[in-house]
Design a protein that fits this description.
Strand order of the largest sheet: 2-3-4-9
Strand content: 25-35%
CATH superfamily of the largest domain: Rieske [2Fe-2S] iron-sulphur domain
Number of domains: 2
CATH topology of the largest domain: Rieske Iron-sulfur Protein
Largest sheet: 4 strands, antiparallel
Bound molecules: FE2/S2 (inorganic) cluster
Helix content: 10-25%
Oligomer: single chain
Number of strands: 11
CATH class of the largest domain: Mainly Beta
Shape: elongated
Distance between the termini: 64 Å
Order of helices and strands: HHEEEEEEEEEEE
CATH architecture of the largest domain: 3-layer Sandwich
C-alpha cells in the first residue's frame, strides 16, 4: 500500500510535465499556422550557415594606382549579424612597386586596435594612440608596443582589378589570430 501511495504523485507529476510540453508545442504550431509566427522565423536560424568571407573589388584599374607608396582604400561592406544586415565602412592599405603584385594591409594597429596613419615623410605608418611604428612597405613593427606587424590581407588582381578579402584579427597578441 505504501509503495502504491508513493508511486501515485510521481506519475501524476510526470503526466503534468508531459501535458505542459504538449501544450507548449501546440501553442507554437497554432501560432505558425495562424501566421503570427512566420515559419521562416522559426526555421531560418537552424538552416542558415555563416556566409563565407567574400572578395571585394577595391580598385577598378591597376594603371591608376600610386606605385612605391602605400595608399588607403575605403569601401563599404555588407555585414550580416543574425537578423540584421548593415553596411560598414572599411579601410585597407595597398602597396605595390609595379602595379602587378600588390600587398594589402589592415590599417588596424595590432596593439589595441587604433587606426594607423601614413607618415610619407618618414616612410612609415604611425599609430597615434601609443606611438606604434610600422614599416611602410611590409607593415613590420619598427617601434613602439605593437606585438606584431600590420596584418596582411588576401589580395588578388583579376582583369586589371584589385580584390581583397577583409578579415579582422585579435589585437594585443603576437600570433595572427582571426576573430
Ligand atoms: S593602439 Fe597602436 S600603439 Fe597602441
Amino acid at each position: 500500500m505504501e509503495h502504491e501511495a508513493a508511486a501515485q504523485p510521481e506519475s501524476f507529476e510526470e503526466r503534468r510535465r508531459f501535458l505542459v510540453r504538449v501544450s507548449a508545442v501546440g501553442a507554437i504550431l497554432s501560432s505558425i499556422m495562424a501566421g503570427s509566427i512566420p515559419l521562416t522565423a522559426v526555421l531560418s536560424p537552424l538552416l542558415r550557415r555563416p556566409a563565407p568571407k567574400g572578395w571585394t573589388r577595391v580598385i577598378d584599374d591597376v594603371n591608376t594606382v600610386d606605385v612605391g607608396v602605400p595608399f588607403k582604400v575605403d569601401f563599404v561592406e555588407a555585414v550580416e549579424d543574425a537578423w540584421v544586415e548593415s553596411r560598414v565602412l572599411r579601410s585597407v592599405w595597398l602597396y605595390t612597386e609595379d602595379a602587378v603584385e600588390f600587398r594589402a594591409m589592415s590599417g588596424v594597429c595590432t596593439h589595441l586596435g587604433c587606426s594607423v596613419a601614413l607618415d610619407t615623410e618618414k616612410r612609415r605608418f604611425h599609430c597615434p594612440c601609443h606611438h606604434g611604428l610600422f614599416d611602410m612597405k611590409t607593415g613590420a613593427v619598427i617601434g613602439g608596443p605593437p606585438p606584431r606587424g600590420l596584418d596582411s590581407l588576401p589580395v588578388k588582381v583579376e582583369n586589371g582589378e584589385v580584390h581583397i578579402q577583409y578579415l579582422t584579427f585579435r589585437p594585443g597578441i603576437e600570433a595572427k589570430e582571426a576573430t
